[in-house]
Amino acid sequence: KDALAATSALEKNSKTANTCFTVGGFATQSYLAREDRRETADLDFAVLLPMDYDDFRDYSTSIRNTLNKLGYQCEMKKSSNNYKIFMQKDPSEGTFTVEFARRNEQNMARHIERLNEEFANTRQKMIEGTNITYRVSSPEDIAIPKLVRCLSSLRRNPSFSEYFNFLEGNLDTAKKAELKKTIADLREDAAVDLGDATLSEELRFASDLYDVRLLSQTAGFNVPYLEKSSSRWDNLVPKNAMDNYFLSLVLPQLS
Q1: Predicted pLDDT at 204
Q2: Residue 155's closest CA among 242, 222, 74, 223?
Q3: Among 8, 112, 153, 239, which is least packed, fewest CB within 10 Å?
Q4: Distance from C-alpha of 203 to C-alpha of 185, rounded to nearest angstrom
Q5: Pairing of strands 96-101, 82-88
Q6: For residues 73 and 95, what is the distance between their CA atoms, to the nearest angstrom?
Q7: Residue 227 has what DSSP assignment?
Q8: Which residues neighbour 119 within 8 Å (Cβ) at sequence distance 6 or greater?
């Protein structure tokens, strides 16, 4: 909650207002009932501006200042795809990460049309217990990249089709509990065996599957926009019978 509130400081500056929105795991959780939410260790943002490291330092000044006032220590780092702010108040509790997508001018030029459309379809939500608002990606724009990732994983690992059992019929209370436990167990195993790429991929697959199905059942999809959003992704085109069956289970709206 503190990280989300801190990022709202961007909206008070004319240079940074309306330039980012929440995506990823936290965006998903914002649409789900409290009892259905999964743990997330980071807060991800899509950004509508090209930035180098110095640009991001300036861009994020208000966020870091707000976090400092709340008692957090902040550290900035960059990875190949993101700029990261690591925030920590109590060393015994570990760190929480706020991540912003990193794009140079060429990369931004290739994606800005899609990003602008996704921004136009964001939802304004309120942080629980406050009057502070934030922008979050639409259910459709959250689901489609997760489905693309799921299909790619399924093609590499056909054994993941064992998860189809969770998709047949509604993801009811018993199935939700079982799938959440499976995800928790996979996360524990992956934390111990960091070099097992297949285990990490299965964790991501199961988590994405849970998120997409719960978004479909809880938030629902705008079918015309879902169809439009899915048409941007060539990798979402089914290549075999297993792909077709998977998509018919997870997205019956498009069947």
Answers
A1: 92
A2: 242
A3: 239
A4: 9
A5: antiparallel
A6: 10
A7: H
A8: 18, 21, 46, 48, 135
Amino acid present at 134: Y
140's tokens: 């459709």
**What is the pLDDT at residue 95?**
85
Cβ neighbour number for residue 190 with a 10 Å cutoff:
18
In this structure, which long-range contacts are made by residues 66-71, counting pairs with CB atoms below 8 Å and at least 24 apart in sequence? 66/5, 66/6, 66/9, 67/2, 67/3, 67/6, 70/2, 70/6
Residues 6+ apart with CB under 8 A from 113: none
Question: What is the structure's pLDDT at 254?
Answer: 63
Cα angle: 145, vertex 112, 83; to 5 degrees: 70
| pLDDT exceeds cutoff 70 at 44 | yes
The SS3 of residue 138 is coil
Where residue 255 falls among pLDDT bands split at 50, 70, 90? low
| DSSP code of residue 166 | H
Helices (H) and strands (E) in the chain, counts: 11, 7
